[in-house]
Structure formats: structure tokens, C-alpha cells
Design brief:
8-stranded antiparallel sheet, 11 strands, alpha+beta, homodimer
Chain lengths: 338, 338
């Protein structure tokens, strides 16, 4: 099915701005079930790669040996809001490893969580890399280094075995050659990979379809997906769309967003994966577009559609708190493709 | 001249995101000198309308009667950073009018200026509508109401004569029928108008070409342009692109940006106006695209190009302060249009 996905930003009766999205919906073999005009668009996987970057730790048995809880695994795949609960979870992982926030290479940025934000603004000495939305991923990377007996120092660099192993895992799950993936530096200073949207969708199809009856890789993917779906808050936090989507579908879908306008979703029942990218990198159109695409795929129940209505068409408010517009996704089957 | 304008966001070697821009370059008669595929795109004028919203106050002689300085006129056309100097300037205007920040309807938002931001965060009681980037425009609206003997209460509403008069001024300068302009509500709660980019460009051509030898309207436009070009900091502030562009061209160009990815520029020597809009509303591509378009129009000297190089290709830094990419505008003459 060929689709066109746009998000219109309305200001009163005026079409003020427009986001164009590219999307790929694939099965585990990489077959395109649905997509926009350019489902092979190559872009950065950003934080949507996190479930697969976590794969080596689980697959090699280290997660079992350390006895990480589902919430701890979920935060290792998270882009969290830096709420007190997230910070505590990550600090606990580091403490078990005999490490501290000083060992994290992700840098500090202000947390999204309002309580944490107020805290770090009024207590500048409390600022630490634990608040970085990627601190859980970095704790997982440090755990992998510790588990394999590699130095933790420099774990964020492309040439460190932690990063090489994670890059290979991402490439394999998504069905692309690791050496074909252009590499850049992510917001949190670790390598970031570029691959086609269709390959990302294939990876999420595998994450969705994996079962405990499969091989070591499938068992690891199954465990990661279950951890994420059981603890959507750990993967994001209040108000984050990936968290909302998993919560409102009762953990039936697995979802993970990434910076620069990326959202990936796994549909376990149908063994499908979705990768959706705002061409311009904007985040604001992703929730409406993702919900609209799931509707188009007939994936949501009536109750879920109602529960997701605020994500489907967010209201735009101005500085005085007045409703001045809305953000609306439009999914069409282009005439030429009918 | 037919153009295609894109802005590419690079992350290392990866094209991570792309902004598409529409542009119109027009003369005072509205003749299209250059433009992208859709120069008649209708979108909101947002803060780029401010010089024309200020027109009635000047044209009717009120600015002279109050004896407003050039800096005071400039801040009435500003989207300022809320620096202490801006706040003081606007507070001074209100005091002369016998009004206070309580009379401003624009609401509060955090200022961009770092010193002011630190101040309002550590002194919540200091928060006021003076810090709103539109507070100067609102002070001008209050002045118009006072000058005409209209109530200041409710000056922000579409049905108030202040707003009706300003709407007519915007429509007339841009050469469109006021009743044809769809109206929404701006970020600061006053009406915002939608019109074609080519009409906005025509308005800026008139702002650029106006002289003191013309009629009352031309004299008012000339005075507003001179005030803006003489006080670029008052119109924006440190780091704001419109300010930078006016400063780096020694006040030869007049420029004013608007929310949702709009930049308008007047070229006095050639009597041309430019309106440039990021289709998706993003701000980050505007400076590179505007400088690239001015280069394409052969409007910048070699020294100005050098002075504007940081705006032409901004570096992207991550949370740890590493250079991880760049934002680059590409202006092309499409093959089909050559």
C-alpha cells in the first residue's frame, strides 16, 4: 500500500506550516507492507536504535548474570525525562557496577521532567549526566564493557569494542551490512548509524515478532521487548509519545522514538515494524502521524483511538494559554497509487 | 529567476534532515524578480508584520507628537530577546503613556537573553509581560489607542479599532484586500494575518524603497526602516538573525523574522523585498537560507559574506559540546527553469 503522510500545523483557519513524512512498514524479512514514496530514505537511527544497542548485553547472558530487572533493562533502552525515578534507576545500575555518574560520557542537559528541572535549576550542584535522557543506555554500555573485561574508559568511542559490537548487532537485526552504514556522532557522544527507513522497520518487525522459543538472538529481543512493554514509563516518561503509545495500547505495541523526528513501532501480533521520519526533523508531527498511520493500518481498537485522541490532534496554545491552532496528520493513498 | 532552496542538516557525513523553503523576491509593484516554485504560498505574517503594524502610529503623526526616539520606534517593531535594555526601553514607553506592564496583553514567556533568563529564574516575582518578545509591539498598540482616544482595555482583540487599523495598513502596503486575509491569533494574543509570500515581499520592497520625499505613508515607512536599521539590537538582540543581518550589512538591509520559519528582508538600493518561509516552520534553516539567497541575488559584498559566514553554515554541537554536524543551505536554479 502506497501512502502519503503530511502533518499540517493550523493556526485558526490558516495552514501555517507543513511537515512531510516518509514511512516504511515491513515484515521480518524486510518485505514492504506499506510505505510512502521514499521508504528507502537513509537517515540516522538515533535513539530508536537503543533496543538493538542493548542486544549484545542480553544475548551474551550478561543481563542474566547481573540479574537486571525488567525496569533496569527498559531504562537501558530509554530516552527518559530525567525524572527522579529514572535518575534513581540509572544510579542504581552504576552503583552495582562499582561506577558513578562521573563514568558516563553522555554529558549533561536539562531534564524534561518538571520536578527534576526545578531541582537542577535551584540546585546547580545536583546537575549530572544521570539526567541526560541517554544515561540508561550509557549505563548499559558500561555494563557491557565491565562484563566483557574491556576498559570502561573510552567506551563511547567508535573504535571501542562496545561500540563495534553494538554496531554489528544493529546492522544484523536490520539486515544491512555494518560496513555500509555511515556513522556520525550522537547527541550523547556515542556513534550513531545511518540506514534506510525500511531496514529500521525490519528491525522493529523482528523486535515485535521475537519469542522465547527462538534462538539466542530471538530470546534476547523477546526479553527486551517485554521489558519495554512492561515498563513504558522507564523507556520515556510522562508525556513522551513512545511511553503514551505503549501505555494506551496496554503494552501490545512496542515503540521508541529518536531525535530529529524519528518514531519506530513494532506490531507483535502481525510481526510488522514501522519506521516514520519527519523529513525536516521536527518532533511535533510524530505523534499525530504515528497514530494516523496505525489507524490506516487498522491496528487500533476504537477504545485505543479514543485514548490516543490527544496525541492524534494536539492543540496549539500560545503564551497566554489560548487555543490558537492544532496539529493534524493527513494520511492519504495517492491517486496514482490507487 | 526560478530557484529551489533547501537546507540540509548534516550529522557527520549523513544527511539527517531537510528543510524545504519557499521564497518570493518582489519589487514595489509586486512584480516577481525571483522565486521558488510556490511564491504565492499563503502563510501567517507573524512578527514580520510588525513594521507595518507600527505604520498607523507613525503615519498619523502620533509618533512625532510623543517624540519617540528611533530606538523606541525600533523596539515597537521588535521580536526582542528580553534583555535588560529591551525591558527598560519598553517600560519607559509604558511609563510615558501612564501605563504599566499590567496593561500588556501579550503574556509572559521566558526571555532568550541569558542574563534576563537567569534573573527571572532566580527572581520569579520579576516575571512580567515586559519580557515577552512582542512587548514593544504591544506598547505601540497601547500608544495608538491612547493617541486616538480609544480604550486601552481590549486593544488586543480583532474588533478593537487598533487591530482593525493595523490590519488595513498591513493589507494596503502588501497590496492585498484586508477582507481576503484569513486571521488567526498570534503567540502574543493579537490577530495574525495570512497572505501570500509574494505580497509580504512586496510590502518589504515598499519598506525598503520608501523615502522622506514621498507621501505620508512613504515618509512613515522611511522613518520606520531608518529606525530599525539604526538600532538593529532593539529589533531583536544578541544572536537574533535579523539583528545580525542588519548589523553585518551596516544597516544597508532591513530585516525582520517571524515565528514558524519566516524571514523578510528589504533591499533599499534595488527597491526589492524578500519573503522566505520554511515550509515546516523550523527556524534553524532560515539564516543559512537567507544568506544563501542574498548571495544568489548578488546582494552581498565579499566582506559581508565573510562577516555572515557563521550564519551561512552554522555548526551543530551536541550536549558534550562536540561539533557533530552543520546546517547548510543549497540554492539551485532547477534544470527545468534554466
Amino acid at each position: 500500500m502506497r501512502l502519503q503522510i503530511d502533518v499540517i500545523v493550523w493556526r485558526g483557519p490558516i495552514r501555517e506550516s507543513r511537515h512531510r513524512l516518509q514511512a516504511a512498514v515491513c515484515d521480518v524479512a524486510g518485505r514492504l507492507e506499506a510505505g510512502t514514496a521514499e521508504p528507502e530514505t537513509i537517515t540516522t537511527f538515533r535513539s530508536a536504535a537503543k533496543p538493538f544497542q542493548l542486544l549484545p548485553l542480553v544475548e551474551r547472558g550478561h543481563a542474566d548474570r547481573w540479574g537486571w530487572s525488567e525496569a533496569e533493562l527498559a531504562v537501558m533502552a530509554a530516552s527518559h525525562t530525567g525524572s527522579p525515578a529514572h535518575v534513581e534507576l540509572v544510579a542504581g545500575i552504576l552503583a552495582r557496577l562499582g561506577l558513578t555518574a562521573e563514568d558516563l560520557a553522555c554529558g549533561y542537559h536539562e531534564p524534561l521532567d518538571p520536578a527534576s528541572l526545578e531541582h537542577v535549576r535551584s540546585h546547580p550542584e545536583a546537575r549530572s549526566a544521570l539526567y541526560n535522557n541517554c544515561s540508561g543506555k550509557h549505563a548499559g554500555m558500561l555494563c557491557l564493557a565491565r562484563s566483557e573485561g574491556w576498559p570502561t574508559e573510552g567506551y563511547q568511542r567508535a573504535e571501542h569494542p562496545v561500540q563495534a559490537l553494538m554496531k554489528r548487532a544493529v546492522a544484523e537485526v536490520c539486515g544491512v551490512a555494518a560496513e555500509s552504514m555511515p556513522t556520525g556522532i550522537d547527541g550523547c557522544s556515542v556513534p550513531v548509524f545511518a540506514l534506510p527507513l525500511a531496514a529500521m522497520a525490519r528491525g522493529y518487525a523482528r523486535l515485535a515478532a521475537a519469542t522465547a522459543e527462538g534462538d539466542a538472538r530471538a530470546r534476547a529481543l523477546d526479553r527486551i521487548r517485554r521489558a519495554m512493554c512492561a515498563h513504558p514509563w522507564a523507556v520515556g516518561g510522562d508525556g513522551r509519545f513512545s511511553t503514551v503509545l505503549m501505555q494506551k495500547t496496554g503494552g501490545r505495541l512496542v515503540a521508541k522514538g529518536g531525535a530529529e523526528g524519528l518514531e519506530c513501532v513494532g506490531l507483535p501480533r502481525r510481526g510488522l515494524g514501522i519506521a516514520l521520519k519527519s523529513e525536516d526533523g521536527a518532533a511535533r508531527g510524530l505523534a499525530p502521524a504515528t497514530v494516523a498511520l496505525l489507524e490506516q493500518l487498522d491496528e487500533l481498537t476504537a477504545a485505543e483511538r479514543t485514548a490516543l485522541s490527544a496525541s492524534r490532534r494536539p492543540v496549539v496554545k500560545n503564551h497566554a494559554g489560548l487555543d490558537v491552532g492544532a496539529i493534524e496528520a493527513v494520511v492519504q493513498v495517492p491517486a496514482a497509487a490507487r
